[in-house]
Amino acid sequence: MKVIVGSKNIPKRDATAVAFGKIFPDAKVEVIGVDTASGVSSHPTSATEALKGAANRIADALRQSPGADYYVGIEGGLLRVDDRAWEMGWVVIQNSAGNVATGLSAGIEMKGQILQAITDGRELNDVINDIYGISKIGNSNGFYGLATDDLVTRQAAYEQGILFALAQFKHPELFG
To answer: Dihedrals φ, ψ of 72, to 5°?
Structure first.
């Protein structure tokens, strides 16, 4: 089974490999990351923008690498409810037949200077680097890991969203 992830980000790629291995344990899964453009801001500040970014990553990956069994787009972004916001991983998966499913990771509430910086248009990676001196946290444990002492990492959170989306392919009768 060939799976293309619309990113070369390590946690996104590894989360995809683990989730597909869990859903399809008898398949030999090959996961390939490709650089894609999200077509949205560097850190989406709404659910609509994050879902669009994930879908755009699939479209770009499909153009670059046609013929895969599945395409996965993952976009970190904010979910806003009233005056609060949570960082979440938005997942879109498309199979070779063109069927699309979505999933969402667990979320962690964002507050204070970090939320303000994201709202002002800064990327979370850059904000964490400026405040804590941690470079490219999104390629490792992510803000999830920083905030939870690695009890929940970026990869683990994204695995959830991927599993929720894949459930729609595994059990279509539940979603018809």
So the answer is: -125, 130
Q: Dihedral sign, CA of 59, 11, 33, 102?
A: negative
- For 143, the token pair is 């803000």
100-104 vs 84-95, strand pairing mode = antiparallel
Tokens describing residue 59: 């479209």
First CA to last CA distance, the chain: 25
The token duo for 90 is: 């938005």
Predicted confidence band of residue 76 (pLDDT cuts 50, 70, 90)? very high
Domains of the chain, by residue range, sit at: 2-174
Beta strand segments in 82-142, E: 84-95, 100-104, 108-110
Helix 112-119 with 124-132: angle, nearest 10 deg: 140
In the predicted structure, residue 139 carries a pLDDT above the cut 90 = no
pTM: 0.95
Q: What is the dihedral of CA 44, 46, 48, 51, to 10 degrees?
A: 50
What is the second-level CATH architecture of the domain 2-174? Alpha-Beta Complex (3.90)
Give counts: helices (H), strands (E), the chain: 6, 6
Quote the CA–CA distance of 124 and 170 in Å, as a whole number.
33
Q: Residue 76 belongs to what H/E stretch?
A: strand 70-81
- Are 4 and 35 in contact by the 8 Å Cβ rule? The answer is no
